[in-house]
Each structure stands twice: as structure tokens, then as C-alpha cells.
Amino acid sequence: MVTPRSGRQFTLSSGEYEAAVVSVGASLRMLRHHGRDLVVPFDADEVRPVYRGATLAPWPNRVVDGRYAFRGDEHQLALTEPERGHALHGLLAWAEFTDRVVESDRVVLAATIEPQSGYPFRVGVEVEYRLDADGLAQTVRAHNLGPDAAPWGTGPHPYLVAGAGCVDDWVLTLPASEVLTVTDDRLSPVAVESIDQHPQWDFREPCAIGDVFIDHAFTALAAVHGAAEVRVAGADGHGVAMRWDERCPWVQVHTADHADERMHRSGLAVEPMTCPPDAFNSGVDLTVLEPGAVAEASWRITAF
């Protein structure tokens, strides 16, 4: 049997939820509730469009110019976002993961980041997806298998779907009081500023997205019962929510503006992150995995 382009397929179900996870990039290919898409899906025999549903590690977002210094050593990563000259979304987005656990409502996939040019560290990564009555939970665990400390960050890359229409038609709730501004040309980080200075991105109260462009990281997230939550609702009041705890103090939100009309503003990327863009350089919220250390982060997608 020929393996589909997106990798080996793992189908999960629990109650009214169903999901498809694929081995390439430990990616979420599909998530539905009662037949309604909660994320923008892609076909099994399709090369995954952009980073749709991928697991991002050992860094989310960008390392500017692909260069960083860590504990006195200079490193140069491959520039995987050549149009902007950055290293984008880590080293595992196109890696083939092996399966450690396969159950009807749960799959655990694993891969190892081997020492390489730009990232001379060995880190084992385990990704768990689990469906239950409250939706889909994803957990990423990192284990430093090498003799040296390693920089680490992670996050997911789902494009949420609230219902009929496109991003412009939906209402967003984003409980963030600060935003990381970026340059217009390369989206390189500039400064963390109060959301009050940028009212176009103030969604602390539910607000229609309309035609606003968003491709920014937000922080100072208001938590309820220890969890931050982003909600996207359609015209009928139903939609999808994503929530996570303090291990992800940042969230990247992107309105999926794209030159390809088939993908343009078709879903809202919501990416909880353990650290901000370019954390390998700034050090902000960067996890340093000492030899033998383990780090874990998780998030959940739920229909409402």
C-alpha cells in the first residue's frame, strides 16, 4: 500500500468528535464535531498546505535571519522562510513521526531531533492527541537526550473554523492586553506594546474580525480558572474555542491572508506558544532544557 502524501493516517473518535492525525509533522489533518469542521482540513493524499495543523518544535514562529547565540556559541539555521530570510516553525514540521500508542480515541507519536547544523542538540519529542467529551487535547513533551543544555519552544498551528463563510464573517474573543509589533516587510519583532495603542487588535470583548489583518503574537493573557481561551464564533453563535494554561504565555493569531484565493482567510490560525517569536535571540520565556530534563505543554480545541 502506498502511503498518502500527508503520511500514515490515524483516525480518532469520541462521542460527537472525530479527528484525523497524520505522521508527517504529527499534524492535525481534520477535526469535526457533529459533522462540523472545527479546523481547516486537508486531504490525506495532499502535501500539507503551509503549516496547517503541524506541531512546531524546537521553536515556534521565527528565528530572525536564522541566527542565534546560545551559551556562548553562535548558530546558523537553514532559512526555511526564504522570502523573509528567517528560520520558520522549527525542525519537525516535515519529519516522519513513529507511533507509540494507537487507540480509538488517542494516539502518541514520537520523533527525535538529531544534532545538526544550527541546532547541535538531541531532543526526543512526543506528541499526544486525545479526544474526549470536551474536545481534542494535544500535549507535546520534550526530553533532552544529549549531554548539553538545549533551547526549546513549541506550539501548534491549527486554523480554526467558526462556521459558514470566512474569517471576515466571524467574531473573535482574544483576552490579550499586549501585542508584539513587527516590521511590515519581514514580520521581525519590534516591541511588546499595550493593546490600547492598537485598537484594531483589541478583541478582549467579542468583536467582528471584518477585514482587519492579523499576524501577531499576543501576551498578557487573562486567564479564567488557570486557562486562557480564544473563541471564534459564527453568525449562528456556534463556533470553536481553544484554551491552554500558563505554560503558553503567548499566542500567535493570523487571519490567513494568502495569495491563493482557495486558502485566503479560510481559517483563523490560533497558535499557543511557550515563547514568543525570535525567543532564541531575545531569551524571553525560552525554555532551557538541561541534560535529561523534560518539558511539557498542552492545549485543547472544543466546539461550542
In short:
The protein contains one helix and 27 strands.
Spell out the key features of this protein.
single chain, mainly beta, nine-stranded antiparallel sheet
Descriptive notes:
With 304 residues, the chain is mostly beta strands. It has one helix spanning 279-282, and strands spanning 9-14, 17-22, 27-33, 36-37, 55-56, 62-64, 67-70, 73-76, 86-88, 98-103, 106-113, 123-132, 135-144, 150-152, 155-156, 159-160, 171-173, 176-182, 189-194, 207-208, 215-221, 228-233, 239-244, 250-254, 268-273, 287-289, 294-303. Strand 18 (176-182) and strand 19 (189-194) form a beta hairpin. 45% of the residues are buried.
Radius of gyration (Å):
18 Å
Strand order across the largest sheet: 10-11-12-13-27-23-22-17-20
| Unreliable parts | none
SSE succession: EEEEEEEEEEEEEEEEEEEEEEEEEHEE
Largest sheet: 9 strands, antiparallel
What's the number of extended β-strand segments? Answer: 27
- Principal-axis shape equals globular
Q: How many helices in DSSP terms?
A: 1
- Which percent range describes the beta-strand content? over 45%
